[in-house]
Design a protein that fits this description.
Helix content is about 25%, strand content about 25%. With about 270 residues, the chain is of the alpha+beta class. The protein binds a DNA duplex (14 and 14 nucleotides) through α5.
DNA sequence: GTCCATGTTCTTTA
DNA sequence: CTAAAGAACATGGA
């Protein structure tokens, strides 16, 4: 899926083009993408104007003119795209919002949510905050807050970085890339990281995410931005997906292990077990 | 046919 | 009790 850089790319892409638009019509092709189950999304959205679109963690949070909110989660294979009316509707397109701009012009654009694996979905918030169950944003995280979040657990640092209640927005690609940049072994117990390691990790998280956002994210297979364009960051990966290949820094072979059921790639020389 | 995949949540185990 | 590991979800590509 889309992790923080990919979600940020989509949000940056669609925000200026949908804020101020009115929802003319809602086409909901399957209802099992909705949470809570049973809500009448078309009734809740039709006729409303979108006043804001923002990212929180990996959630795309949409605010309406009546202060109600919902968010879209892209799961592993989700895509949120802008399309012109009449363009091909791909298989697994579950929701289409037909938007009209504020000038009273007819249907100019469609916001389409497509998700083959259906690990994502549409989550209605009403007037609640989108923060439920989420830790701090990595891009503004302070070292002291990171230290606090890691001090109470012996889990491997890689597992902690994937836990959205600890830090919200990292996923399997960027957790590995951040640990490489910080020079930290993924199996290091979270609570034995030194203040120096925490500082380096905090800086590595920000640098990795900023660079990935600048490259419009990583595309492995499914991810595309709102204009169906893939991200360019994959070619810049130092470890993720590079098992057996030479480390970009020291030429040692990149190692792959399975941790919490996920591929974990690291350089055994640059990220020594401490 | 097999294995693997950018995520989250529920269940089982220790 | 808690923490951590494992399974499940659904689809498709290699």
């Amino acid at each position: 899926m889309p992790e923080l850089p990919e979600v940020q790319t989509v949000v940056s892409n669609i925000t200026p083009r949908v804020v101020g638009s009115r929802v003319r019509k809602v086409q909901l092709n399957r209802t099992d993408i909705l949470t809570p189950a049973g809500i009448n999304l078309p009734a809740l959205l039709t006729g409303r104007t979108i006043t804001n679109v923002a990212r929180r963690a990996k959630r795309i949070v949409v605010t309406l003119d009546n202060a109600n909110r919902f968010y879209i989660h892209l799961g592993m294979s989700g895509q949120l795209t802008l399309a012109t009316k009449g363009s091909e509707i791909k298989k697994h397109t579950h929701l289409i919002l037909h938007l009209a701009n504020g000038n009273g012009l007819r249907d100019t654009i469609e916001l389409r949510f497509r998700d083959p694996r259906r690990f994502g979905g549409v989550f209605w918030l009403g007037r609640d905050s989108a923060d439920t169950g989420l830790g701090p944003e990595p891009l503004t995280l302070r070292p002291a807050a990171l230290a606090r979040a890691l001090a109470h657990t012996r889990r491997p640092i890689k597992s902690a970085l994937l836990d959205q209640t600890v830090i919200a927005g990292l996923g399997n690609i960027y957790a590995d890339e951040c640990l490489f940049l910080a020079g930290v072994h993924p199996l290091t117990p979270s609570n034995v990281l030194t203040p120096g390691q925490i500082g380096r990790l905090n800086r590595a998280i920000k640098q990795t995410l900023r660079r990935a956002i600048a490259a419009r994210g990583s595309t492995l297979r499914d991810y595309v931005d709102a204009d169906n364009k893939p991200g360019k960051y994959r070619s810049k990966h130092n470890v993720y997906g590079r098992e057996g290949k030479p480390c970009t820094k020291c030429k040692s072979a990149i190692t792959r292990i399975v941790l919490t059921g996920r591929s974990t790639c690291f350089c055994p020389h640059c990220q020594p077990q401490s």
